[in-house]
Every structure is written in structure tokens, then in C-alpha cells.
Structure prediction request, 177 residues.
Amino acid sequence: MMITFPYSAMNSRFSVAVHVLTLLALADGPLPSQAIAGSVNTNPVVIRRLLRLLSHAGLTQGHLGAEGGASLVRPAAEITLLDVYRATAQPGLFGEPAGTPNPLCLCGRNIHAVLAPALAEAKGAMAAALSYHTIADLAAAIREREVPAAAQEPSSPFTPAQITAAITTLTVDGDSS
Prediction:
């Protein structure tokens, strides 16, 4: 029997923060929380809370006004996934036990001591892997993934907005032939 853990049991704040920072790296300017929330498919309030956390960590900044929104504080190539993890992680990567095991039990009195080295090794490996990847790497990978799809589509002299307007006009007029 395989035991599976729901994704939500993991630190989803980290993955959402990576999504947000990568989106900001791809953007031409500051993005409002509403636009970011649309990409993440969540409520703008959740995004604003996360942006405050990322701002306190020195990763994002807010801009006021009509053209306001969030942007990266430093270049995406200088923001590692370890930076994001440290900004968003909650204590206990591996779910540290809440209570103390039974000291009268052979396993209970020894489990922490024998498990600690393995967990320290795993945490070190994770930190090393996360420090190797940057937000710029993810943004570049996203752009690269989009190139083949764009290359396969026939070229059109019309912009997406013009195509959308034409489809809307046909639907409104009722003449779809």
C-alpha cells in the first residue's frame, strides 16, 4: 500500500511565492495583486499577504498609483529558490513532532537522536539544490516552453486583441458563418 500526502500538506506558500516572483520577473513592469491572483488562481487578499512577506524578506516592493503594483527588488538572477524558501518556510520541514515520545519505550527514547542526522542531511541537500536555481532560470524555462508552441502556430498578421475583438463581433452579431 502506497501512502500519499496531499499537496496542501506541504508548504504551498513556497510554491505560490515562486509563481508570484517568476510572474513578476516575466512582467514588463509592476503588477497589481488582482493580476497576480488571476495567474495563481487565488484571491487577491492571499497575494497581498504573501507580497508583504516577500517584501519583508527584501524580494519585492510595492508601487502606489494607477500604474502601481508589485515588482522585484533585485534582478531575478539574484533571487534563488533558497531565498524564497527562507522567506516563506514555516518551522519544521519534516513535521517535527509536537510532543515528546515515551521515554520508557526503546524506540521513543532514541528516535530523535537516530533520526536527526538523516534529517540534517536531507535539509542540507535541499538547501543546496534550492540555492542552485534562480527565479530567472524559471522565467527562462517558461519562455523556452512557449517558443515551440508559438513556432507551430501559423503566423497571423493580426494581434490577439484584434482576433478577440473579431470573435466578439461575430458572436454579438450572430453571424458566425
